[in-house]
Write a structure and sequence with these properties.
The protein is an all-alpha fold. It has one domain. It contains six helices and no strands. Helix 2 packs antiparallel against helix 5.
Length: 106
């Protein structure tokens, strides 16, 4: 059984886990993370232009952006950049990026 299967039995969280797992495994993490954050920013701007209220997506955006950034930079409470065990913890622990799974599902 893979780490992804242990973590995510639902399609949307599994997709999110796989996406960040690919960033972790990318040989050029810096470029992959920068590209990912740029795309995420563009998506945020698209939501703004479409008329979505910021409160609808801001918390989710901040959580996901912080998790992606942590692939190359340690962010509290982590003492090192994100690795696969840390990613598993982030997707399983309510204290760590507290509701990624439910946010992705909604």
């Amino acid at each position: 059984m893979s780490v992804r299967e242990l973590c995510c039995t639902d399609g949307a969280p599994a997709l999110g886990f796989a996406y960040i797992e690919n960033l972790i495994n990318d040989p050029d993490k810096e470029l992959a993370v920068a590209s990912s954050l740029s795309l995420l920013q563009e998506s945020k701007e698209l939501l703004d232009r479409a008329g979505f209220e910021k409160f609808v997506y801001e918390d989710m955006y901040d959580d996901i952006a912080a998790l992606i950034l942590s692939v190359v930079k340690h962010t509290p409470p982590r003492t090192a950049p994100l690795d696969i065990p840390g990613l598993l913890e982030a997707f399983q622990s309510p204290e760590s990026t507290f509701t990624i799974q439910s946010r992705i599902n909604n």
